[in-house]
Design a protein that fits this description.
binds 5'-O-[(L-methionyl)-sulphamoyl]adenosine, about 650 residues, OB fold (Dihydrolipoamide Acetyltransferase, E2P), alpha+beta, Isoleucyl-tRNA Synthetase, Domain 1, globular
Length: about 650
């Protein structure tokens, strides 16, 4: 059944089954640890999918995992695991996470799935036949962490990744290239003729600026490792992981495999992505689609980034909390309500546990909880079932007007992904309904038998509002909505939005919807870690300090320790003496970038072995979360110089 909304009172049934909605999240790097920041994209996409389903759209909601590339291959090696086995295990974690968060995806795609591999190869063959792929030599910079190529003009003299600030690796390889430059003009034309193509508008403007500067061709294959999809026309090459990943959006809906399904859902209605991957979705992906002659997605919505308790999310800060931990403590509905209510979708925002508690107590326990509890208990105390309404007064009209405005606003806000505004408008209705109770004073009406009819009208109107609220919140607060609808014994159906459609039924008051959180005794779940870095150590005397022999050393040679992502072996010159140390800076520094640097070492540290390699001293470095910088001297001194 479908519904067409004309206005609040004219949601009419139609039998047109042609309305479809295809919504996607990015596919997650399978070896990343999901936290509330990364789960955010999927939580929001789920709300949209549920909303569209409720509106009668034949909805397809996709998420999945991105499983190829150098970073994943290295991580598997580090663990000494077979790469396929490694990704199989990790993919399960995501499948389970989305289950636990009641995410309603219709498909979970993995880039190692056979059908996807086949589609990617066919897609590439098409681009090749179109003349958009050519063999060239790539010489430039690569961020393994973000799996991103950078040109000299994107980066500074320190050769750090502009996004994650990790050191870039210099790459020199024979690669295939995609003629992205050819699509600069067609893309600009598309952006100009489709002003809603990328949202929010400030992120669209960033993309237009890049286009106006002109796009360069990009490398789309690698030969230095093999964990990826082989190019169909040159099996020595594997396809660049981003190209492989982006194609998931069409392979998931049957491109080249199931024409009927593909026609039904493609082009996608919206790709939800975080701001740092907007460029891939708004520029590269559309150019790839133009190359093979497919229509472009209708919209890319690039949301902002979340911090947690005011800090960038990082494991070492202790705020990279598993979303399930939050859900266990506060409930799924409360966490989702808070995320959508407090963080303006599109902008950066902060997930603050204190603010979450405030919202639970004020909006959920107090505003909504009180409205429901007061209304339902008065119905039960005074009537066998939901009473009939009769003559209405001015205040009833005010409530009715507000309800109708709220429903209209709700539709337009939800259609444009303005969740904060949608919830604010629903909660204005909740608050006004509480005021309506205060003004109509049903407890006084209940004492006077001659006012029974008026009491019935007031309580009917309140139940009617609760029914409407339950329907409106259902894409966000699934359980709460169901629980409310059950208590008043009605149907959860968008077609019933509007005034005076509540059926006569017995009701149940039930337990409080959201118990209040007593902040005096409540134990918060996000504990900022007492890490080594932020722990104060015990005082030491100058004599203790004098026991440490610190010296300046110059790095003569540097090489990675095989099978380790982090460990690097350094050969040092310390005042003419040659020393070998092993240090864990390999995630942040490439061996080549270390040669010739002057560093500071603990010279008299007891020798030890790391992964079987002797280490004779220790390098000093400053650590701030995942950031790490080695200490060095300010100007020239001879190696071997002492530090005091
Ligand atoms: N594998 C790529 C996407 C390929 S899509 C063809 C990728 N994966 S990811 O695991 O790094 O990111 C998944 C989603 O999480 C992205 O939308 C990303 O923006 C989002 N977030 C990760 N950390 C985030 C925050 N701290 N805050 C909000 N979203 C963030 O990118």
């Amino acid at each position: 059944m479908r519904f067409v909304r004309k206005d609040v009172y004219l949601i009419e049934e139609v039998k047109d089954l042609s309305k479809t909605f295809y919504v996607t999240t990015p596919i997650y790097y399978v070896n990343s640890d999901p936290h509330i920041g990364s789960a955010y994209t999927t939580i929001v996409a789920d709300v949209v999918a549920r909303y569209k389903r409720m509106m009668g759209y034949d909805t397809f909601f996709l998420t999945g995992t991105d499983e190829h590339g150098q970073k994943i291959m290295r991580a598997a090696k580090e663990k000494g695991m077979d790469t396929k086995k490694f990704v199989d295990d990790l993919a399960q974690r995501f499948i389970q996470l989305w289950k636990d968060l009641e995410i309603s995806n219709d498909l979970f795609i993995r880039t190692t799935d056979d059908y996807h591999v086949k589609t990617v190869q066919e897609f590439f063959q098409k681009m090749y036949e179109k003349g958009d792929i050519y063999l060239g030599k790539y010489e430039g910079w690569y961020c393994v962490h973000d799996e991103t190529f950078w040109t000299e003009k994107d980066i500074g003299p320190d050769k750090l990744c502009p996004v994650c600030h990790r050191p870039l690796e210099h790459v020199e390889e024979e690669n295939y290239f995609f003629r992205l430059s050819k699509y600069t003009k067609p893309l600009l034309d598309h952006f100009r003729s489709h002003p809603d193509f990328v949202e929010p508008d400030f992120r669209r403007n960033e993309m237009i600026k890049i286009l106006e500067e002109g796009l360069e061709d990009i490398s789309v294959s690698r030969t230095s490792f093999d964990w990826g999809i082989p190019l169909p026309f040159d099996k020595k090459h594997v396809i660049y992981v981003w190209f492989d990943a982006l194609i998931n959006y069409v392979s998931a809906v049957g491109y080249g495999r199931d024409d009927e399904k593909f026609k039904k859902y493609w082009p996608a209605d919206v790709h939800f992505v975080g701001k740092e991957i907007n460029r891939f979705h708004s520029l590269i992906w559309p150019a790839m689609l133009m190359s093979v002659g497919l229509p472009l997605p209708k919209k890319i919505f690039a949301h902002g980034w979340l911090t947690v308790n005011g800090e960038k999310i990082s494991k070492s800060k202790g705020n990279a909390v598993d979303p399930r931990v939050l859900v266990k403590a506060y409930g799924l509905d409360a966490v989702k309500y808070y995320l959508l209510r407090d963080i303006t979708f599109g902008n950066d925002g902060d997930f603050s546990e204190d603010n979450l508690i405030v919202r639970i107590n004020a909006d959920l326990a107090n505003d909504l909880g009180n409205l429901v509890h007061r209304t339902l208990s008065m119905v039960n105390q005074n009537f066998e079932e939901i009473p009939d309404p009769s003559k209405e007064e001015k205040i009833d009209d005010d409530l009715k007007d507000l309800l109708s405005r709220t429903i209209n606003d709700y539709f337009s806000y939800m259609d444009s992904f303005k969740f904060t505004e949608a919830l604010i408008s629903i909660w204005n209705l909740v608050k006004f309904s509480n005021k309506y109770i205060d003004m109509t004073e049903p407890w006084l009406l209940a004492r006077d038998p001659s006012k029974k009819e008026r009491l019935g009208t007031v309580l009917y109107n309140l139940v009617d509002v609760i029914r409407n609220i339950s329907i409106m919140i259902s894409p966000i607060m699934v359980k709460t909505s169901k629980s409310l609808i059950d208590r008043i014994n009605q149907d959860l159906d968008v077609n019933m939005l509007g005034w005076h459609k509540t059926e006569k039924a017995k009701i149940e008051v039930g337990e409080p919807l959201f118990p209040r959180i007593d902040t005096k005794v409540w134990k918060k779940v996000i504990k900022m870690a007492e890490t080594e870095e932020n722990q104060k150590k015990a005082e030491i005397s100058i004599e203790d300090f004098a026991k440490i022999d610190l010296r300046v050393a110059r790095i003569k040679k540097a090489e990675r320790i095989p099978k380790s992502e982090k460990l690097v072996k350094l050969i040092l010159d310390v005042g003419g003496e040659e020393r070998q140390i092993v240090t864990g800076i390999g995630l942040v520094y490439t061996p080549e970038s270390l040669i010739g640097r002057e560093i500071i070492i603990i010279y008299n540290l007891k020798p030890t072995k790391l992964m079987g390699v002797e280490s004779n001293g220790m390098l000093l470095a400053a650590k701030d979360g995942e950031k790490l910088r080695i200490l060095t001297v300010d100007g020239f001194v001879e190696t071997g110089a002492k530090i005091s």
